[in-house]
Automatic annotation (TrEMBL):
Top-level taxon in the UniProt lineage: Bacteria
UniProt protein name: Sigma-70 family RNA polymerase sigma factor
Keyword Transcription regulation: yes
Organism from which the protein derives: Marinomonas arctica
NCBIfam families documented for this protein: sigma70-ECF
Molecular function as annotated in GO: DNA binding; sigma factor activity
Amino acid sequence: MNQPLLSEQHTTESLANLLLSVAQGERHAFAELYQATHRKLFGIVYRILKNQAVSEEVLQEVYLKIWEKAASFDASVASPITWMATIARNRTIDEIRKNRLPDSDEEVDFDLIADDSMAPDDSFTKSQDLLKLEACLGGLESPRAEMIKAAYLDGFSRQELAERFEQPLGTIKTWLHRSIKQLQGCMNL
């Protein structure tokens, strides 16, 4: 049986309260926050890096940053898990940039790296923006909505998308570009 990525006993409010306690230096709250969220944040980091050892190191740095920046969390701006997932994603992207190999022949498109902060979780309610995004995705031509989800939610590279959808890489790039423009237009209505 799969374990949930977030502890089911924690709600948005309880995670926000834990962050508030962490901001006040309460170590037990930090330990509880870690237990409630480490699987989800590790999943974000690992999906991008695809290396367990490096992902574990980066995750330690993510939690150090959460400890240091907990006082800057603002529940009116983002949910606790979105705030922490953003820290995890940004730190992971920094790791890629810092350690990029000069002979790498694949260009990393950081906008296409999965952002789990947008992935809905059963224990949290969907925001109005997410509902609107789902409606806008429904307006895309098939299979473009599936491709956008594979790129942004599942972390597929453009090359992986080309193979999955049996299309040339240039076509995939064009479809992604046009689909994102269409989504932006829809979301701004």
